[in-house]
Amino acid sequence: MNKYIKKVLNGLKEKNINESEYLQAVEEVLTSIEPIIDNHPEYERTALLERMIEPERIITFRVPYVNDNGQTIVHRGYRVQFSSLIGPYKGGLRFHPSVNQSIIKFLGFEQIFKNALTGLPIGGAKGGSDFNPKGKSDDEIMRFCQSFMTELQRYIGADVDVPAGDIGVGEREIGYLFGQYKRIKNIYEGGALTGKGLSYGGSLVRKEATGFGLIYFMREMLAHNNQTLEGKTVTISGAGNVAIYACQKSQEYGANVVAMGDSSGCIYDKNGIDLKLIKQIKEVQRGRIFEYLKVHPEAEYFECKGGDSPIWNIKTDIALPCATQNEITLNSAMKLVKNGVIAIGEGANMPCTKEATEYFLKNNVLVAPAKAANAGGVAISAVEMSQNSMRYYMSFEDVNTKLNDIMINIFITCKIASDKYNLGHNYMAAANIAAFEKLSCAMNAQGIV
Ligand code: NDP
Predict the structure, then answer these.
(1) Quick one: pLDDT at residue 401?
(2) In which domain, by residue range, is 120 found?
(3) Same domain, yes or no, for 152 and 222?
(4) Are residues 295 and 312 in the same domain?
(5) Which of 82, 88, 103, 380 has the CB geometry, 3.0–4.6 Å to 108, for a possible disulfide?
(6) Closest by alpha carbon to 278, among 264, 268, 291?
C-alpha cells in the first residue's frame, strides 16, 4: 500500500477506534485512489488526505420531547458538516435507533464524493438522531421534529447547509421540520430543506429520484455489458422510499421484481410484486411487509431471525440492497453468486461489506456503487434548491429527463475513470477516483483550509 495512505489510515484508526462504519468508508475510498496518490507525492506535504477525511464540524445536541403519555424523553441529535469544498453542506437526516456518530460520519463522508459525482455545486453533510419513529403517533413525530429543528436551525440555511430525508425521515418529517424552521427564522427560505411536499416548495420527482436514478444507472451499466433489465428477476431489500421507486422503475423496464423486505422479514411473490399494495401498506398505513399476505396468500414470507437477511437466499439475476449499511455480508454474497446473480445495484449507502464487494468483483458480478448509483436523490434535491431560488416549478417530465441525464453522466464519468486507470468492471474504485479528482482539484485551489 502507498506509504502516505497507510500513514493516514493508521492515524485515523488511532483517533476513531470505536467508529467502525466511518473507518470502513474511509478505507474503501483511500485504498481505491492509490494510483492518484502514487502520482502526487506533494499531497502529503499539504496533508490533503487528512483534511479530506476530517469533518469541518461535528455538532451534537440534546433533543427532548414529551410523548403521548406525558413522559419526557431525551434523544441525541447530530449534524456532521463534512465538507463545503464545492457547495453548501448537503445531506439527509436519519432517524433510527442505531444512529451514532460513526454512522453519521460515514454517511457524511460518502456524501462528499456522491455530491461531487452529480456535477452539481453541493458539499457533503449528514445528520440525524437515535429517535425511532416506528410506532409513534403523528403528534409525537411532530413534537420531536420541532424540538430537533429548534436546535438545528442555528446551523443550517439555503447557502449554508441543506438537510433532506434518509431512513425514518420522509415527507411528513420534512414538513414538520420546515414548519418549525420557518417559524423560528421568520423567513420563507424554501432552499433550507429539500424533500418538501409539493404544496409548499417541493420538486416533482424528488420522491422517486433515488430509486429511479438507481435503475437508470443500472440500465446504463447493463447496456455497456450487453444486457438489459427486460425479463430479469430482481430482489429488493427495504420497502421504503428508495426500494419502492426502484421497484416501480424496474417493473416499467420489464423486470420481474419477486421480493421486497423490511427489518422484520421479506415477501417472495413469484408472480411479481404488487407494488400498489406495497405502497398502500408502507406509504399510507405505515404497516409491516407481512401484511402483503392478507391480500396475496399465495406469496411466501421469510422472517429475519437476526444475522443475514433471508432475502439474499432467493435466486435472482439482479439484487438491489435498498435498506441499510452492511446488509450484504460475504456469506450472503456467496449465496447470491451461487444462485447466478449478474448485477448488484446499491440503493442504500455502503450496503455491501468490503468482503462482499470483493467477492462480487472476483466473480465478475457487476456492482453499481452507492456513491454513483444512488446519487439521483441528492441531485434532484439540488434541482429542488434551484427551483426554490428561481421561484419556479419544473414539470415532472423535465425533472425526470434531468435525472436521467445526470445518471447517464455519472455512469460515463465512472466509465472514463475505469478506462483511464484500467479498472475493468470495478465501478466502485472508478467512482471514488472520479470524485476524488474533482475534490482534490478544488482543495488545492482553495489553499490550506
Ligand atoms: P426509509 O426509511 O424510507 O426505508 C428504509 C427501509 O429499509 C425500510 O423498509 C426499513 O425497514 C429498512 N431498514 C432500515 N434499517 C434496516 C435495518 N437495520 N435492517 C433491515 N432493514 C432496515 O429509508 P430510505 O428508503 O430513504 O433509505 C434506504 C437507504 O437508502 C439508506 O441506506 C439511505 O441512506 C439510502 N439513501 C436514501 C436516499 C433518499 O433519497 N431517501 C438517497 C440516497 C441513499 P423497517 O421499516 O422495518 O425499519
Answers:
(1) 98
(2) 55-188
(3) no
(4) yes
(5) 82
(6) 291
Q: 201 lies in a domain?
A: no
Q: Which of 136, 262, 291 to mutate to test the pocket of ligand 1 (most atoms within 8 A of CB)?
A: 262
Residues 109 and 243 grouped into a single domain = no
Name all residues whose Cβ lies below 6 A of ligand 1. 165-168, 170, 210, 238-243, 262-264, 322-324, 347-349, 374, 377
Q: Is 18 in the same domain as 144?
A: no
Alpha helices (H) along 33-189: 34-39, 48-53, 101-117, 138-152, 171-185
Q: Are 66 and 13 in a shared domain?
A: no
Pair 84, 117 in one domain: yes
Q: Tell me which residue has its CA closest to atom 39 in ligand 1.
A: 166
The three-state secondary structure class of 339 is coil
Tell me, yes or no, whether 304 and 247 share the same domain: yes
Total-model pTM? 0.98
DSSP state of 47: T
pLDDT of residue 60: 98
Q: Which uninterrupted H or E stretch holds 18?
A: none
| 191-233: pLDDT as tens digits | 999 999 999 999 999 999 999 999 999 999 999 999 999 999 9
Residue 430 is predicted with a pLDDT of: 98
Supply the CATH number for residue 171's domain. 3.40.50.10860
Q: Using 70 as the pLDDT threshold, list the residues of the chain that sit under it.
A: none
pLDDT digits 0-9 by tens, 235-268: 999 999 999 999 999 999 999 999 999 999 999 9
Q: Are residues 25 and 71 in the same domain?
A: no
